[in-house]
Amino acid sequence: MKQIDGITDDYKQNFEIAIDNNESAIIDLYYVPSQLGWFIDVTFGEFMSKGMRVVVSPNILSQSDETLPFGLTVLDRAGNDPTQKNSWTQTHSLYVIEGDELQTARDI
């Protein structure tokens, strides 16, 4: 599990993350105040997922595409979803999972 570092309380953020198979994924993370929540767009090769609400989950990409070689895990000390603009700087973390961790998350 690799933590995605550098997430701030900026409304819109963009990350390029390395995947173990020498490819990369693009993640756009953005906060929508009227929805009290964070949303994510993920692009990986031909795969694209847009507007997915970020929730505490073993793999928020689990229903998107079973063929992806990675997943995204959201953790919070109290188990709550990220609803505040400062959630990432206070209590929440976003991780990339691959390999056995990905399979475990898919089995849940």
Order of helices and strands: EEEEEEHEH
Number of domains: 1
Distance between the termini: 17 Å
Fraction in helix: 10-25%
Uncertain segments are: none
The strands making up the biggest β-sheet line up spatially as: 2-3-4-5
Number of DSSP helices?
2
Strand portion, in percent? 35-45%
Shape annotation = globular
Derived structural class:
mainly beta
DSSP, total strands: 7
Give the biggest beta sheet: 4 strands, antiparallel
Radius of gyration: 13 Å
Mean pLDDT: 93
How would you characterize this protein structure?
The structure is a single chain. The longest helix is centred in the last third of the chain and has 9 residues, at 99-107. The chain has one domain (2-107). The chain is globular and about 35 Å long. The chain has a four-stranded antiparallel β-sheet, with no helix packed on it. Helix content is 12%, strand content 44%. By secondary structure, the chain is mainly β. The protein has two helices and seven strands, in the order ββββββαβα.
